[in-house]
Amino acid sequence: MGERSFELRTVALAAFGPTLLFSTGEGAIIPMIPLIAADQGADLGTLGLIAAMIMVGELVGDVPSGALVHRLGERRAMIGAAIVSVLGLVGCYLSTIPWMLGACVFLVGLSTAVFALARHAYITTAVPLRYRARALSVLGGVFRGGYFIGPFLAVLVLMVTPDKRAVFLLHIAFALASVILLLCTKDLGTGGEGAAEPAHQGLLTTLVHHRGVLVRMGACAALIGGLRASRMVVLPMVAVAAGLSPSTTALIIGIAGGIDFALSYTSGQIMDHFGRMWAAVPSMTGLAVGHLVLFAVDDVPTFAIVAVFLALANGTSSGILMTLGADLAPQPGPAPFLGAWRFTGDFGQAVGPVTVSGLTAMAGIGFAGAGMGLLGLLGAGLLLRYVPRYVPQARTGVPGHITHPAE
């Protein structure tokens, strides 16, 4: 990318608008899926499995979605993903037994993987390097904003009708709105015409050719994803262990979430002006320290301090995984690489809560926090080693695409 003039609003309608709509709908259904499964007769273990199907769908869809986006182009891939999501949501609404609900939720997860990859690839291609981190941080913030708004809209829907399945209709409306918005915007630009022939070959070639960076930087991405997901699981567990009331817990976590969201653009400014490492390493270190001190939480003030500290640490790296993926992705045609890259982060997000659960069962929540904290310090060390090696030019004022050192 050159040093051309650029303003974020030039990509707002094409990328941020559909993302806000789609993520708001998804944010509305996620808290309700276990409740709907329970209404259909699922036991506690099955509830967790069905709720996890959306993440499992994303994991399964991450890598092949790269080839699909490369073949179709970003705009058509996003439209197709939204339509497939609508089909899955219709199935969710019509389902009467848990296995059918789980299968349809899995389909929604698959479509989410394609939708997310397409918007990531678009920003990677459309935004100049010197503005990239800010654009992707805003994209991450928009996604978080949708997840924040969605549950409140679900509450409003349930005030109108007692049928919990109505939240699926809400997501259908938002998904269709995203399709209409995409149809009203110009083509997002890469892939599609002329890209069909190398799509499958590009996926396999990308995985083989970039196996070194995917293993090394992918380990960093998995650890970042794991610590982030762990934070969302471990805080409510610590609150229960400390005897906090549900309302107090929800209030503090909500305030922390607001702080996290408010730092989205600041994170992008740090990465664009000072370099990716200055957001990644301090953030990972902060997440590690926040987990390490969880054993000290025994009342409301200490819980609030740790929750806010973790929010500050997480917020200052908003968009870091998408930004590093964009920096590392080959040009042209970044989608196959980004599909594999997103899998590493999503894998960490899936494994993180499971690790917390296992460590807690072994020796308690304090031990789980310490274990995740040590993994966080390991991640900070890996970032300190590999970010300067693989992303040496990802800072303001240095034009051109980033190349990987010999592996």
UniProtKB/TrEMBL annotation:
Compartment list: Cell membrane
SUPFAM superfamilies registered for this protein in UniProt: MFS general substrate transporter
Cellular component terms (Gene Ontology): plasma membrane
Main location: membrane
Superkingdom per UniProt: Bacteria
Keyword RNA-binding among record annotations: no
PROSITE patterns: MFS
One Pfam family here: MFS_1
Domain annotation Major facilitator superfamily (MFS) profile: ranges: 11-391
InterPro entries, sorted: MFS (IPR011701), MFS_dom (IPR020846), MFS_trans_sf (IPR036259), MFS_Transporters (IPR050171)
Record membrane topology: Multi-pass membrane protein
TM stretches of this protein: 46-65, 77-94, 100-118, 138-160, 166-184, 233-257, 277-297, 304-326, 361-384
Protein name (Swiss-Prot/TrEMBL): MFS transporter
Organism of this sequence: Saccharopolyspora elongata
